[in-house]
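INPUT
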Amino acid sequence: MAAAENIPQPSRRISWFSMGNSKGFPPALAALMLAPLVLGLLIAFVQPVGQLLGTSLWHPDFTLGEYQRIAATPLYFRIIARTFILAASVTAIALLLGYPVALFLARLSGRRLTLATACIMLPLWTSVLVRSYAWIVILQRNGLLNTFLEWLGVIDAPLPLLYNQLAVVVAMTHVLLPYMILPIWAALRTMPRDLPLAAGSLGANGPRTFWHVVLPLSLPGVASGVLMVFILALGFYVTPALVGGAGTLMLATLIGQQTIELLNWPFAGALATVLLVATLVLVAAFNRFLGLDRKGAA
Amino acid sequence: MSLATAADCSQPDQSTLGGTVSIETIVKRYGAHSAVAGVDLEVARGEFVALLGPSGSGKTTLLMMIAGFEQPSEGAVRINGTDVSWLPPHRRDIGMVFQKYALFPHMTILDNVAFPLRMRGQAASTRRRDAIEALQLVGLDGMEKRLPGQLSGGQQQRVALARAIVFRPPVLLMDEPLGALDKKLRERMQIEIKRLQVSLGATVIYVTHDQEEALTMADRIAVMNQGRLEQVGTPIQLYEKPANAFVAGFIGETNLLEAAVLGASMGTCTLRLKDGSLVEATRASEAASTINRVVRIAVRPERIELRVAGEGRLPGVVEEIIYAGATLIYFVRAENVGTLTVRVPVQSPGLRPARGDRISLSWDASHALAY
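OUTPUT
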C-alpha cells in the first residue's frame, strides 16, 4: 500500500493495474513483471548459494573449521592472492587495449560501424572453450607462434609459452575484452558530438579535449567495464583450467576440484563464500570511490 | 540582466571583442556536391550579421569553416586581417554558441565558464573573477556551483553565451542558439542577446533559418540558398528591395505571380497575368524589360488593396477571411492566377468584403517587383 502512495497524482483512484502516470508502472504491475526474474534468481542463485554457505558453517553442527583451514594454510592464501592479482592484471590490460578500440568505434558510422561491431560481437558469440583452445593452438610447443619465431630464426628451441601465468593472462584478456569495450563504447556514443567541438572552440587541443571532456564523461562506462571484467575474471574457470598449469591454480579451479573431484562441499562452500564476500567488498569500495551510480553522462 | 554594470565591467581591459571577419570566395565541396559555392562576405567590427537560409543552404557549413571545424576547398577566412583558414579551431580564438548549449555536464557552471581561461593558462584566481563577471553579464550570478543539468534550457544557453564571451574572442559565432527554446523565451533571449552584443561591441555571426529572428537581431542579413549568397543587406533593404524572387519569398510573406512582359518604361513595366489582366510593377531585373519574357511579380500582402469588383486590376473571389488580431487576412482566389494573401489592418476604413464576394485587387507599381 505504501508504494501506491508514491505516485504523485491528485487523483486517488488509480487502479493498481493501470498506468498511474507516464513515468512509471503502477507498483502491482511492476511487481508482476519482475516476478519471473525474482523467482528464477531465488531458485537458481539465492537458494544454492545460501545452501553452500550453510554447508560451510554447519556440517551438521556449527563450525568455523573450514575458514580456519583457509586462514591457516599459506597455499590457499597464495591462490586467493594470485586470483586477485591475475584478475586485476587482466582488467588493466583489457582497459588499456579496450579504451582506444571503443574510442575508434565511437567515431564510426554506417557500414564500417556494422563491420566493426561484428568484429567485436563475433568472439562473444563463439564459445569460450573454442577461444581458449585457439590459444593452445597458438601457444603450444609446436604451435603457431613458436613455429613462426623459429622460422624467423629468432629462437632455436621452442619457448614454454603455454601452461603459465602469461598464457592465462593473455587468453583471459582476449576472452573478456568485449566486456570492456562495449560499456565504454556505449558511454562514448551517448556523448553529444558538440562537446568535443565546443572544447575545441574554447581553446582545448586534442589531448586536452580528451583529458578534460571525453575521458571524464566516459568514466561511467569505464567503471562498468572494469567492474564487469574484474568480476568475471575473478570467477573464471574454463580458460585458466585449459591454458594454465600447476603454478597458475586459481580460486574457481580450486573450488571446482573440491566439489567435483574431492567432494569436499563444506570446504568448497567456504572458498566460494570468501570469493563472494571479497567481490562484494570490492564492488562496494569501487562504487564508493568512482561513484558508479552518481555520475551519469547525461 | 544587469546590462548597465555589464558595460562598465568590460571597460577596463578593452578587449579584442569586436574584430573583423572577411570571407573570401570560399568553397566547400563534398565530392561533386558544393555545400558552399563561392561566398564573399565582409563583417565589420561590432557588426551583427545573420546567415539566413533554408536547411541545406550551406549556412552551417559556412559557419563551421569560420570556426575551423571544416576546411575550405577554396578561398580563405580572415579574422582581423589574418588568414586563419588552416588553423585548427583551438588556435582561432573564436567564441561559439551551439544550438544544444554543449555545456560540459560534469563541470559546474563556474568551471564551464572558466574552461576557456583555463585552456589559456590563466591563474585560478583571475579565472574565477572573470568567469563570475561573465555570468553577471548574462544575469546568472549565484549559479556558479550548480551543474548544467540543474538549469533550465534558457539558463543553460546563457551559460554557453557567458562561456563564449569570457575570453573576449574577436568574433562570436552562434549556430541557431535559440532553436531549442520555446517561442516566448526565444523572443526574450533575442532581445537580451542583441542588447548584450551592442553593449559589448561584439562582432557576431549568427546562423538561423528563422527570418523573424534575423530581422529582429541582425544589422545585416546574408540570405543563403544552395551554397550561394542571394543577397546581403539590412533588414529594411531585404524586405523592401529583395534582389530576387527567392529573397522576396524567403523574407516575410510574399505573393509570387507569373506574368508576361508587355512593355517597359522608366523603371516600371506592364505585364499580363495568366487570366489576361494587365498590371504594373517595378522592374527589378533585366528579364523584366524583355518583351514577352515570363517573369515573376512579388507583392507583399499588406501592399495589396481590396477594391469593388471592376475598379481594381485583378478580379477575384474572397475564399477565406482570418481574423489575426491586428490584421485581417483575406485569401482571394484569382482565376488561373492562384490564391493571393491580402493583409488589411483591422482599423483601416477600406472595403470589407465577406466570404464569396466578387472583388478586385490592385497595387501601386512601386510596391510590386518584377524579376
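end of record. The mean pLDDT of chain A is 83.
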